[in-house]
Amino acid sequence: xxxxxxxxxxxxxxxxxxxxxxxxxxxxxxxxxxxxxxxxxxxxxxxxxxxxxxxxxxx
Length: 59
Description:
Strand content: under 5%
Number of strands: 0
Shape: globular
Number of helices: 4
Distance between the termini: 30 Å
Order of helices and strands: HHHH
Largest sheet: none
Number of domains: 1
Helix content: over 70%
């Protein structure tokens, strides 16, 4: 299994919802960072993490 591929697909589905589940997205991002072996997989969730950190009230 590739955590970055599976994780990004799940994140997209969650972000297509009208209301984001911030806790679930944050947990998913952390799991992707921890479980990925390569740097690309570890960094794939960085834009999501930044959006949640700086614009949380928008979601």
